[in-house]
Amino acid sequence: MFLKACNDCGIRVLSFQMDLIPIEEFIRHINFRDSSFCIAVIAIIFNPLFWNVVARWEHRTRGLSRCFGSPYLACCSLGLVIILLNVLRSHSMTVVMKTQARWEPMERTEVFYFGISLMVLGTLLVVSSFLALGFTGTFLGDYFGLLMDEKVTGFPFNLTENPMYWGSTANYLGLALIGASPVGLVLTAVVALAYKVAIRFEGQFVPELRSRETKCCFFLGCG
């Protein structure tokens, strides 16, 4: 009985060790001390933090609107900065994926085509959400008092409340799979986590913001 228990325990330990081998191999292909990796992580975390902090500051003070002479110009200017920051983020992530090692188990035809499918889906979500919201709607127009007539509920917002964020995440995941890049998967996970925090941060504030702006318009007679 004791011998059987020991044998069962040994099998479990061996199985656990075998399960760890792919994880160790995966991690071995990632250089976490690479300066370009650190830059990419900083860019990923900084972007949503930047636009949320600036947008809330604008909502409280109207500082950007006064500086640019109108809320519309201020919103467009912030939008252009956000676009440039996202280009920088994408470039830094691409550099890391190209310079760090590929992982052989990911270099398969089905993985490659799955990555392409994700990028097609991600692009569809991003482009369709931009077309549905417009420039100011996409780039935090609510914080500038540039409210849409009504909440967008059609495609792709009938699939998810944050299609721009998850479409962007799908693009990065697809790119990592196409490049058979372990570090790309890690960076994509950081992107998803950063967006998750941003969604939670924005979700607690935007409904209240829209309610305040709507009430102000009603009392001022602009609704």
Topology:
Layout: H1 2-28, H2 35-61, H3 63-68, H4 71-99, H5 109-138, H6 163-178, H7 182-203, H8 206-220
Helix pairs in contact: 2-4, 2-7, 4-7, 5-6, 6-7
Molecular structure report:
It contains 8 helices and no strands. By secondary structure, the protein is an all-alpha fold. The protein has one domain (34-220). Helix 2 runs parallel beside helix 7, helix 5 runs antiparallel to helix 6 and helix 6 (163-178) packs antiparallel against helix 7 (182-203). The radius of gyration is 23 Å and the shape is globular. The protein starts with a helix and ends with a helix. The model is unreliable at 1-11, 13-18 and 214-223 (pLDDT under 50).
Overall number of strands: 0
Question: Averaging pLDDT over every residue, what do you get?
Answer: 85
Distance between the termini: 81 Å
Reading the helices and strands in chain order gives: HHHHHHHH
How much β-strand is present in the residues?
A: under 5%
Q: Detail the poorly predicted runs.
A: 1-11, 13-18, 214-223
Rg, rounded, reads: 23 Å
State the shape. Answer: globular
Helix and strand composition category: mainly alpha
Q: What is the helical fraction, as a range of percent?
A: over 70%
Helix count, per DSSP? 8
What characterizes the major β-sheet? none
Number of domains: 1
Function: Catalyzes the three sequential steps of the methylation pathway for the biosynthesis of phosphatidylcholine, a critical and essential component for membrane structure.
Protein name: Phosphatidylethanolamine N-methyltransferase
Lumenal side: 1-34, 56-67, 137-179
Enzyme class: transferase
